[in-house]
Design brief:
Distance between the termini: 76 Å
CATH class of the largest domain: Mainly Alpha
Membrane topology: Multi-pass membrane protein
Shape: globular
Main location: membrane
Number of helices: 23
Number of strands: 0
Protein name: Aquaporin-like protein
CATH architecture of the largest domain: Up-down Bundle
Number of domains: 2
InterPro entries: Aquaporin-like (IPR023271), MIP (IPR000425), MIP/Aquaporin (IPR050363)
Structural class: mainly alpha
Helix content: 55-70%
Subcellular location: Membrane
Largest sheet: none
Order of helices and strands: HHHHHHHHHHHHHHHHHHHHHHH
Strand content: under 5%
CATH superfamily of the largest domain: Glycerol uptake facilitator protein
């Protein structure tokens, strides 16, 4: 299931012809595919440094005023450890949790200190292209530059530098206590309150092809536009398949599961490289909480997802309008509504059953998405994520649709509800509270719990809050409060007295 290995020959076979001069007129084409992080269902998820991972200014000043030796917490408990082993995570399991906690604390502090020193001294040459990425290969000019000896992308697989048990510095007392670095203390006033923005500045600016006025507008809203189009593609095909089965009064409704799975695959191919093709507010929230998706983008994504769902329902209804009207001559409108929205499909399906149906289905979907996006697990070959997620949606739909219709997605249910309300189907669409505790509460809770289980049992990356120590959680909360205080101070402009103006 891993797919073919993404080697140089395979990449070269899939590269298109590029006429000389094309990249001069379209500079964005020469930019690597991973020029910016995209939390995409079509490829491995990005590895990002979250705010809680980077110390604050107060923490740095406190560390410089009270320097600690490497592995100090472990040594206080009488442990003989090698700081290099701690930095590499080589911590033995013991019956005393205090000893393991001390070694984990020493390893975390040592890694953070090394990172901060690299950032402040300018020694860090990060690259947005990982050593295992399948970024677009540079053409002849770039190949010549590499042969000329220009800097290569930073690789996280470089061997760790040896860390001495006592720092090699001239600023040591007779007792071996380490004094703060005088260069760092001199520039104390120039230190920002938060070093995390410095990490963001290490990434290169994205290049854009702006040929028209519309292209400028599209550049600023490209992710939302792509997300809305992907949702429209997915749901239009899914709704049309459901309506076709309903108005035909024949066929097995489970066959529509294939349509939903293939529609999901198509949608991910449409926008997976631009917006990530979340297609689902629950997935967007899950990726924000567990993988660092920027929360400033979430409102625009939510709007795009609901707008796409709304217009997909209207489009499907319009295409099948004549068949729907013919069907309603001899049938109740319940079948038509069930083709668009999910519900308790049978009288014996109580609220608890409906909630946990949506909960379990979305939880399995979220865990699968994180597994496919984990490049340290068993990621599929290039281009295979979309197909596998489509097959996953097919399996979940055919498994859980009998009881509720298998929404697993707030926008997939709420958007068409609003569309049917606009088409005159009336208030019964909202009289049953299922619309809230099923597609909304059930899917959101399921996504969060499913992602938690994957990270708790498998994922090792530090960007997940499951792998956050409590100190990093507190640090992240402090930074959030600091950010809001700065915004409030910026919003309160001082009032200048009239005398001073005069």
């Amino acid at each position: 299931m891993g797919g073919p290995e993404d080697g140089p020959q395979l990449r070269q076979a899939h590269e298109p012809f590029v006429q000389p001069g094309y990249s001069d007129l379209n500079p964005a084409y020469e930019q690597p595919a991973n020029a910016k992080p995209v939390w995409s269902l079509a490829k491995p998820l990005p590895r990002v440094v979250r705010p809680g991972m980077v110390p604050t200014k107060e923490e740095l000043l406190d560390a410089w005023s009270k320097p600690e030796r490497p592995a100090e917490h472990s040594q206080k408990l009488g442990l003989e450890v090698d700081p290099n082993d701690l930095e590499q995570g080589q911590i033995p399991k013991t019956g005393d949790p205090r000893k393991m906690a001390a070694q984990v604390e020493d390893a975390r502090l040592q890694r953070e200190t090394n990172l901060v020193n690299k950032v402040l001294t300018g020694d860090m040459t990060l690259s947005h292209v990982s050593s295992t990425s399948s970024a677009r290969r540079r053409r002849l000019s770039n190949a010549a530059a590499i042969q000329a000896g220009e800097d290569l992308p930073y690789s996280t697989e470089e061997p760790l530098a040896a860390v001495p048990e006592q720092p090699e510095t001239e600023s040591q007392t007779a007792t071996g206590d380490v004094l703060p670095d005088p260069l760092l203390v001199v520039h104390e006033a120039a230190l920002p309150d938060d070093l995390h923005p410095l990490m963001q500045e290490l990434m290169e600016d994205e290049v854009h092809n702006n040929h028209t006025t519309w292209s400028v507008i599209r550049t600023h809203h490209r992710e939302a536009l792509a997300e809305s189009l992907a949702v429209f593609v997915q749901l239009t095909i899914g709704f049309c398949a459901d309506i076709a089965v309903t108005v035909a009064n024949a066929g097995n409704p489970n066959t529509t599961a294939w349509a939903w799975g293939l529609a999901t695959m198509m949608a991910i191919y449409v926008s997976g490289g631009v917006s990530g093709a979340h297609l689902n507010p629950s997935v967007t929230i899950m990726l924000w909480f567990y993988r660092g998706f920027p929360k400033r983008k979430m409102p625009e994504y939510f709007l795009a997802q609901f707008v796409g769902a709304f217009f997909a329902a209207l489009t499907a209804y319009g295409v099948f309008y004549a068949s729907i009207q013919h069907h309603l001559l001899t049938n109740h409108n319940t079948g038509i509504m069930n083709s668009f929205v999910t519900s308790q499909r049978h009288p014996w399906i109580n609220p608890v059953t409906a909630f946990f149906t949506e909960f379990l289905g979305t939880g399995l979907l979220a865990a699968t998405i994180l597994a496919l996006g984990d490049d340290q697990n068993a990621p599929p070959g290039a281009g295979m994520n979309s197909l596998i997620i489509g097959l996953t949606v097919y399996a979940l739909t055919i498994t859980f649709s009998f009881q509720t219709g298998a929404a697993f997605n707030p926008s997939r249910d709420f958007g068409p509800r609003l569309a049917l309300l606009a088409l005159g189907y009336g208030s019964p669409l909202f009289t049953n509270p299922y619309w809230f505790y099923g597609p909304w509460a059930g899917s959101l809770c399921g996504a969060m719990i499913g992602a938690f289980l994957y990270d708790f049992m498998i994922f090792t990356g530090g960007e997940s809050p499951v792998n956050y120590p409590w100190e990093r959680t507190q640090r992240s909360m402090r930074k959030s409060r600091m950010k809001w205080k700065r915004r409030l101070r910026f919003g309160r402009r001082p009032v200048v007295p009239d005398k001073e103006i005069a």
